[in-house]
Amino acid sequence: MSPLSHRPVDYQRWYSADQPYLITSYQDKFEPYIVLRKTGSMPVYDESFHRYGMNKVSHIMELTAAGYQFVVLPKVWAIHISHRESEHARKFLQDPHERLRNRLTRFQFVLSLQRRYGLGRCYPGTKIA
Length: 129
Description:
By secondary structure, the chain is mostly helical. Helix content is 40%, strand content 3%. It has helices at residues 3-6, 11-16, 55-65, 87-94, 96-117, and strands spanning 21-22, 71-72. It has a two-stranded antiparallel ribbon.
């Protein structure tokens, strides 16, 4: 579990929660495990992130921009099954040019979100609810 990716879930609170609770602040690189109802208006993964890195993060960022709320469910578990590292992951981790390509794609994506949803600047810890 990456602290940056899951901090807004507040696992200490989740461990003792008896009732669902809303996540009320957005953290850059937030990457929770989610379950969504598929609808025609639901934002889909941006196809710009077709290799490794930022695909789930960008999807959560767009869902947040679109007004989706994230609810933490007590006594519900998701299990991540380990798998071998992909060739794309290895390249991302070892090749600075690949990381730069990914970062540029992310900046372009954030700019498109700002335009599409009329957003201003985003700062860590910005309240969303």
